[in-house]
Structure formats: structure tokens, C-alpha cells
């Protein structure tokens, strides 16, 4: 069934999901803080809006893809927020990576406004988003999830219903933690091998092709050796943010997480060194040690 969807946030992932929804025949109204990112979608028939509220007018659903929880709250409920353009009963799908607490707060605000909020965290890169190959991590009331399922299945090959609001965030944080510690371990392995006299590119190639690797690590070994860290599949500054969320989640639940804490420090140093816009694997440098304090 064709729907009118407001897509709020057309960065790499938001634009990829928007392209997928256009491929599926949906009508799109799009908003982004920097309007130049809208142009490829406008060329395909999407309609630009000056504010989130304008984008939401007449929409059956809103799909949000932003970097931080505060931005999500403002875009949905601020003075120009989508809530001012949506009809009662409209669906709100948030694909951003934020905390479980934020998900519950947004769900409550949506409920008060008569909207149906579905936590819809996504796992994958922009290529997966364009192809409808994301894994979707879903939280919320069962009836809302079923109403949103056609859209969830349009953007994702695998829809995982995890529980109430907050459960999707918890699963996404665990997954991004797992990626972060793998990349931190990769950086350390390369540095130690190079310090012992091995060629960095060779170490990356052997590690990436070994049985010890994973698809995501093999892909990023290739990115480093090919010097293809920009545009990022997943930005380093966002990995820094997500590892902070992971350490907060661990602390809130009384879990010691020394590996996560140490990995997070490496990404914080990467941001401080000006690498935040690059792919997260920029903590692994092809010709020099990983970022150190």
C-alpha cells in the first residue's frame, strides 16, 4: 500500500532509507537541516519542506534519522516539530541510535499527542539502507508495530521485535559496542604487528582475510588499505557517542565494562584528533599508530 511518509533527517542513512521508500512507491516529504542533502531525493520526486511540521502535513507516518536524542525530540516536538503537522494516529518511526531512556520519553510524548511511536533502530550501512537490507530492532506496543510493519519490512530484511520502548535502543547499543571493541582490537593488533616490524598493509590484509575476522572487520580492513575512509559507512564521532551510551547503560545496570571503557577512550581520542567525520575504522591508520594520548 502506498503511503505518504515524512523523512526527517537525510544524512547517509536517512537518505538511503528514503531512496528505498521511493523505490517501493511511497510518496515522500523530506526535511533536513542542510538542504543540499535533499537534492538527490528531490530529483526522484520527493517534496522538500522548510520545517519538520511542514513535512509532516498530510503524512501517514514520519521516519526520523538523526544523530542525537535532543535533535530527535526537537524535530518531533519543538516549535516547528512534526507533531504540529501530523494527524492523530499517525505513526512515528525513530531509526536514530539513542538511549533507552530517550526512547521511553519520546514514546510518552507521542502518546500524549495521540501519535503511535515505534522504536525502529537499524543496523547496517547506507548501501544496505538503499537496498532494503537493514536489520530493524523494534520496540513498542504490539498494535503499533503491526501497523508499522509494512514500512519496517520495506527498509529491512529482518525485523526483530524486542519488547517495549527502550528495548530497541538497548539492542542497538549492544551491537554497536560489539563493533567498537572489534575495531579497537584491530587497531591494537595492527600497531603491535607494525611495531614488531611487520608491514601494516600486510597485517590488515591477513587479519581481514582470516577466520578470526568478521564481515564488518574484513570490510574495514579493506577500507583502510584502500584509503577509503570518507564518505564514512559509520562515522567515528558516532561510534564515540554510542560507546558513551554503552558505558552509561552498563553503569545503570551495575555491569563492569572495562573493554568498552578502554575502547571508548580510543574513539574519544580520535574525535579530539579531528577524525570524527571519517569512518570509525580511522582509529586504525595505514602508516602510523592508532590515536594515542
Task: Give a description of the structure.
By secondary structure, the chain is an alpha/beta fold. The chain folds into two domains: 4-163, Rossmann fold; 169-284, N-(1-d-carboxylethyl)-l-norvaline Dehydrogenase, domain 2, CATH 1.10.1040. It is 49% helix and 14% strand. The chain contains twelve helices and eight strands. Strands 3-2-1-4-5-6-7-8 form an eight-stranded mixed beta sheet, with helices on both faces. β1, α1 and β2 (27-31) form a beta-alpha-beta unit. α8 packs across α12 (258-272). The model has no long low-confidence stretch (mean pLDDT 95).
Q: What is the domain tally?
A: 2
What is the topology, as strand order, of the major beta sheet? 3-2-1-4-5-6-7-8
Round the Cα radius of gyration to an integer and report it: 20 Å
Hey, roughly how much beta strand do the residues contain?
A: 5-15%
CATH class of the largest domain: Alpha Beta
Number of E strands? 8
The general outline is: globular
- CATH fold category name of the largest domain: Rossmann fold
Helical segment count: 12
Cα distance spanning the termini: 54 Å
Relative helix content: 40-55%
CATH architecture of the largest domain: 3-Layer(aba) Sandwich
Structural class label: alpha/beta
Main beta-sheet strand count, sense and barrel state: 8 strands, mixed
Write the CATH homologous superfamily of the largest domain: NAD(P)-binding Rossmann-like Domain
Low-confidence stretches: none
Features:
single chain; 293 residues; alpha/beta; Rossmann fold; N-(1-d-carboxylethyl)-l-norvaline Dehydrogenase, domain 2; 2 domains; 8-stranded mixed sheet; 8 strands; 49% helix; globular
Amino acid at each position: 500500500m502506498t503511503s505518504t511518509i515524512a523523512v526527517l533527517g537525510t544524512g547517509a542513512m536517512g537518505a538511503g532509507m528514503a531512496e528505498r521508500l521511493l523505490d517501493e512507491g511511497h510518496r515522500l516529504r523530506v526535511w533536513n537541516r542542510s538542504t543540499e542533502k535533499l537534492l538527490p531525493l528531490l530529483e526522484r520526486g520527493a517534496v522538500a519542506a522548510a520545517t519538520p511540521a511542514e513535512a509532516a502535513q498530510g503524512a501517514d507516518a514520519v521516519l526520523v534519522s538523526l544523530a542525537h536524542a535532543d535533535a530527535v525530540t526537537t524535530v518531533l516536538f519543538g516549535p516547528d516539530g512534526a507533531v504540529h503537522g501530523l494527524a492523530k494516529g499517525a505513526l512515528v518511526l525513530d531509526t536514530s541510535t539513542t538511549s533507552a531512556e530517550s526512547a521511553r520519553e519520546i514514546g510518552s510524548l507521542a502518546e500524549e499527542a495521540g501519535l503511535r511511536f515505534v522504536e525502529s533502530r537499524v543496523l547496517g550501512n547506507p548501501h544496505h539502507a538503499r537496498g532494503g537490507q537493514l536489520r530493524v530492532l523494534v520496540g513498542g506496543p504490539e498494535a503499533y508495530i503491526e501497523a508499522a510493519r509494512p514500512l519496517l519490512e520495506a527498509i529491512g530484511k529482518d525485523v526483530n521485535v524486542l519488547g517495549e520502548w527502550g528495548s530497541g535502543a538497548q539492542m542497538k547499543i549492544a551491537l554497536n559496542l560489539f563493533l567498537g571493541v572489534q575495531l579497537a582490537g584491530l587497531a591494537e593488533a595492527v600497531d603491535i604487528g607494525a611495531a614488531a616490524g611487520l608491514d601494516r598493509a600486510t597485517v590488515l590484509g591477513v587479519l581481514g582475510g582470516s577466520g578470526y575476522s568478521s564481515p564488518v572487520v574484513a570490510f574495514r580492513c579493506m577500507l583502510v588499505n584502500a584509503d577509503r575512509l570518507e564518505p564514512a559507512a559509520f562515522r567515528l564521532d558516532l561510534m564515540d557517542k554510542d560507546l558513551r551510551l554503552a558505558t552509561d547503560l552498563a553503569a545503570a545496570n551495575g555491569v563492569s565494562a572495562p573493554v568498552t571503557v578502554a575502547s571508548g577512550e580510543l574513539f574519544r581520542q580520535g574525535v579530539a584528533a579531528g577524525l570524527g567525520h571519517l569512518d570509525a575504522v580511522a582509529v586504525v591508520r595505514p602508516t602510523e599508530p592508532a590515536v594515542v594520548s
